[in-house]
Amino acid sequence: VQLWESGGGLVQAGGSLRLSCAASGFTFGSYDMSWVRQAPGEGLEWISSITIGGGETTYVDSVKGRFTISRDNAKNTLYLQMNSLKPEDTAVYYCSLGDGSTWSRYLKGYDYWGQGTQVTVSS
Length: 123
Fold this sequence. Notes:
Strand content: over 45%
Structural class: mainly beta
Number of strands: 10
Largest sheet: 6 strands, mixed
Helix content: under 10%
């Protein structure tokens, strides 16, 4: 399993970024996928999941209405559109196999990590 996150950067509060996660080494279209993040000095926080076909999405309350998760199974790629960014969104963002209940199993249990992409939001 290989996951490659990209698209992070430095942005002012209120700005937008679009993260991508290129996946390989497994049948991407057969797995629910998630985005999780880790703020400085904090643990991992699940923020969003999308089902296999993309028909259902879920979000943590803190990003609802601002972030949109999507996927392109033909390109084996997961996306996260982030709008109205806030300084508290500053974190390293990772994609993971699994949904809101199972992502930890893949990320921590099976050690399916990408390198992450840093998002820094200035006030």
